[in-house]
Design goal:
Arc Repressor Mutant, subunit A; elongated; GntR family transcriptional regulator; transcription
């Protein structure tokens, strides 16, 4: 896949940051999905007319943010978007909201649902 990325050399934003932010936007928007391979550092650097170290720094920043992972043989792949970076508490709150709606629709009592959750928490290690 050809990435729609451009570097503006007249911008006060460093080139690595321009690359990082554009790739991050592609991941967050779903244009780049989990498992998608990014171009090699050398290939993207050549396409953009920047030094390979510039692209390498952008990829390193993306990896630190949990958006991509660099792997031998497969290169740099997308590992997740905004949902993958959401704090655990937010994800648990959303799951609890879903559980509460399901329980209410099923007509379950609060204490029964809490007992089920307590039991599940007790079996998870």
């Amino acid at each position: 896949m050809a990435l729609d990325i451009a570097v503006d050399v007249t911008s006060p934003t460093p080139p690595f940051e321009q690359i990082r932010s554009q790739i991050a936007r592609h991941v967050d928007s779903g244009l780049l999905t989990e498992g998608a391979r990014l171009p090699t550092i050398r290939a993207l650097a050549a396409d953009l007319g920047v030094a390979p170290g510039t692209v390498a720094r952008a990829y390193t920043e993306l990896e630190a943010a949990g958006l991509v992972a660099s792997r031998r043989r497969t290169g740099t792949v997308v590992t997740g978007g905004r949902a993958a970076r959401e704090p655990a508490e937010t994800r648990v709150q959303e799951a609890a909201g879903h559980l509460a709606r399901e329980a209410r629709e099923a007509g379950m009592e609060t204490e029964t649902v809490l007992a089920i959750v307590r039991s599940a928490l007790g079996t998870v290690r």
